[in-house]
Design brief:
Layout: E1 3-6, E2 17-19, E3 24-29, E4 34-39, E5 42-46, E6 61-65, E7 69-72, E8 77-83, E9 89-94, H1 102-124
Antiparallel strand pairs: 1-7, 2-9, 3-8, 4-7, 4-9, 5-6, 5-8
Length: 125
């Protein structure tokens, strides 16, 4: 399921993308990518990627983000982002967490293996 929550920007985040009134931005995003409304309200439109083979028969999901809120994409897919009510807006895209890249996967495997070894040692003692 997706997340919608207030969000504070950290220093590692990218510069905001600005949307003038009436402009639409299309982004092909990976699963678990965060979209943060930095200024103004945003309207997001996306379709269920698992049903892409059905074409336009798949209903469009529309989500409104208020300033400061974050939406995390539940799956890979194309998301259209526009400003609400003809006002300018800005947003930031945050890439998926570290576990989606090779470094994060290796780090997660090390932690899991260390936990498994600790459990074995406790049971053996």
């Amino acid at each position: 399921m997706s997340l919608r929550q207030p969000h504070a920007l950290s220093s590692r985040d990218a510069a905001p993308s600005r949307l003038p009134a009436g402009q639409l931005a299309l982004h092909d995003l990976r699963a678990h990518t965060g979209i943060v409304a930095v200024e103004g309200s945003l309207q997001l439109q996306l379709r269920d990627h698992s049903l892409a083979w059905l074409g336009n028969a798949v209903p469009v999901t529309t989500i409104t983000l208020r300033e400061g809120e974050c939406f995390v994409t539940p799956q890979r897919g194309v998301v259209s982002i526009s400003a609400v009510q003809g006002q300018a807006a800005a947003f930031v895209l945050q890439s998926a967490p570290l576990q989606n890249n090779l470094y994060g996967l290796i780090r997660q495997a090390q932690q899991s293996l260390a936990g498994l070894v600790k459990t074995w040692w406790r049971r053996a003692a």
